[in-house]
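Re: your question from the hallway

Yes, I did run it. Sequences:
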Amino acid sequence: MTPKPPKRATVPGYAQRLTGWILSRSALLLRRLSKGRVETATGVTVGAVWVLIAPLFFVCGVIDWLDGGPDVVALLVSGFVIQLVGFSILRFSKFPSILPVARLFTAFVSGAVAALIAATIAHLVTGVAPTIDVALVEASATVTGTNATTVEPETVSLGMMLFRSLGQWLAAAAMIIVLVRILPHLGVGGLDADGGVATRSARRLAPRSSSTMVRLLTLYMGLTLLLAIAYFAAGMPLVDSVIHSLTTISSGGFSSHSGSIGAFDSPAIEWVAIVGMIIAGTSLPLMFRALRRGDLHRFVRSIEFRTYIGLIITAVVAVLAWSDKWPTADNLRETFFWVTSAISTTGYVAGNLSLVSYGSEALLLVLMVIGGMSASVAGGFKVMRFMVLGSYIGRELRRSIHPSVVEKIHLGKSSIGEVALARIIGELFLATMVILAMVLLFTADGLNFEAAFSFAISALSNVGFAFGLGGPNEHLQALGAVGHLSGALLMLIGRVSITPILVSLGGIGEPLQRDIRRWRQTRHEKAVR
Amino acid sequence: MASNSARKGSSLRRPAVTPVRVAGAGLLAVAFAMIVSAAVAVIDGGGAAAGLTTAALITASVGCALFFGSKVSPSADSALAFASVAWSWLAVSLAGALPFLLTGVVSWAHFDDAIFESVSGFTCTGSTILTDFDSVPQGLLFYRSMTQWLGGMGLVVLAVAVLPALGIGGLDLIASEAPGPTADRLSLRVRDTARRLWLLYGAVTCIVAMLLFLVGMSVFDAVTHAFTTIATGGYSPRAESIAHFDSVAIELVIIAGMLYAGANFSVHWHALSQGIGAYRRVSEIRWYLSLIAGAFGLLLWVNNGELELFRNLRESLFYAVSLGSNTGFGSSNYVLWMPAAHLTLLILMLVGGMSGSTAGGMKVLRLQVIFRYSFRELMRARHPNAIIPIRLGRTTIEEQIASKVVGFVLLYLGLIVAGGVILSGLGVDPVTAFSGSVSALGNVGPALGEAGPTSNFLVFPRAGRLVLMAMMALGRLELFPAMLMLVASLRGLNRMHRQREDTKSP
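Structure:
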């Protein structure tokens, strides 16, 4: 079969050009602004994030004004202040001529923290969150795309609702940029856009990364639009369908109703949400390549996609098999909904979570940890990394019988380098340690064991719902300030992954570290003498 | 397995199958335990002597057939060692179930429960399915403790030590059975190493038994508790475990025993011959002690206000050591404690004792390697071209061993999750299921939730107990030998076949 010639539809062409224009304009603006004296990548990043996030405040403020909501002044003023501060930081800082990897880590993390701060301010000034810890955890949920909240969505004004949903959507879009542009340089194992072979993709992808970025973002927007239409066609009100499409495709999960998707009580809407969530967990580059040529066989060829779909189907079958009733269409839909909501880390809720069996509860937690495909906007540890770990275990088993065998780990056609492998493993162990520490804090703050564990897993994977309490979303309400802060931190760790955070923290403490090392060395030398 | 090898034994030329011979040796050791228990039963007069003797006869005859019917194959490699250890443990666990069935304590309809009790004994887990301890004859209770004592240091190690006729050497064999990623050589000859380990083990058991007797236990209780303390097993002939005695002195003796048994026996040997400085050279022991001390502090803090101070000190210390060495004795019901305490206990169960000890779990050494490995990745993220060795104290771990450890830990965590999901699927609540999974794989005994220290493992469904049984065996054999049992055996069979072809052809 000869490959089909590339078809270029006109509408995506326009969309692509539009996205490209927006991106290049904002990049130009940032470049023109950042001509200050101080060479700091962190300053540039923080300033850029605040300058670019401020329009979100204005848009939401205006929409709130049109809707007659109460938050218009607060949003506009805080947006203006953030814009101003962002501009001034940018004005004084300059992108450094040389950038060590450690600084890049710090810049990346501080960008996420800057977005977090902006969202916290929005929650505080509009009065959605009464105290700073609640505001912080709400903002963290917005920025990381987690459906964990303490507020009733019905009590929030339309402007703020849109702010939260658009925040999730934009954060996921920013994550795509990070995937393409930054992670290949950082080499956070297995997360970057080329499917995780970190060392190789850093070389291969960087030169054409801006066009890749534009394409992926266009696809992302197109999917959002399609999903909004689908929701609308399935019978959702217009505003709701926009909000839900934003939070579905970004695997965020905020809803305009306290019952989430379940509030609509419509099988059609649930099916649309299921499809949307599966898409959200799928690798964007894979989708782009497959859709560009109309070559759907690419999906079948991708071993990660096969595993991802296989996991969903296996989980559904297992849950249905474990329930003692004969499955009906409703059961099937509900099971599919829970499974996709967990594995795509969206965190939508439909039906009664306390009714699921113990087996499906355990399975859903495992799916949360696994998460979506690599290079998707979903959270979790990613399917690809677990596949790599599986082959690693297999290799070690074989090695224990044949001690001198030399074996490379393959995933489909590409082989995984030892460096990327070690990074994936390091990441997993560090994340496990963080989870245990956080569970301790949650239990100390009054959650029971099951609730603490499931909420920690859920927060780290950016899902949102958890088990062990009366409802799926009551965990944050049950927690105190310590729990809120650690929850916010956990979500942030889940989104930007643990290595960058620890490395940038290490960057802060580096002079101290050096002193300690020198002190220990001199002490040791003295002892030797 | 048994009939298969009996056929092999009857042929005139003894086939060279190491696994069969090792399994036979293991069975002989178990038969010895049964005879001793039968003697105890006779002295006690509480019955069960006949059942134990019958079981001993059956086990001994099968063991003799296997042992004398085969010889050791000339070649030795790790695959063969894996197969030997795994098959002998399978044979021993099956034979070990006989006394429970023959004395009628467990009915034949529930033969899987008898095997559960036997596996739980030999793997030093200490999860029990017995409910009414008063109706169980003393001889059988003694036998139960003795299975743990035999399993603690390892049946194969024992066989290597006391049976010169076994004629097998190779550190591989000991390394496959001993807990931990590597085995220390205590002497140039492997048999001497095995002998020294068992000598130390026996001596310490005697000391603990005497101490327990001195602080007020009866002879029977002292001996059985010494067995299960030094084996870090956790079976107690009393239903309430250590709480039955309610004596601070007894608890202190047992705490000291568990703490000793959870540390590396090779280091103990070195310490005996070279002085106390041997302990200071091992960084693992610092980690082990600080882990337990940290858990003790955390438990004290969490239970502060829940329990009165003295009670809190006593119970927190007891459980920090009992679960930190994966023994699983109970002095109260910790299920009633706060959730934060449960997490602490769960982490202790997961990590377990030191490598080369009788304790189960993931082992402190592996935790150390994992820590170093992860922090090396952090360093490498900052300095991508740095070459950083993994150091534990002053020794450097080879890359190959580090990656073996990493593979082990990944597999270990994976099995815990898999076990937890399967158990939840069978209808156990997730806390009980996952903690049961941790407890079984770590050979601890009690779990959290419904399967606490005052409960028994009948709270799990029958299929769930089978899963737990498999996990106990996997955990005691440190995953790899048990997982590779079939692969290694097939490899061995292939090689035998090839050798036979070779001898025929010229």
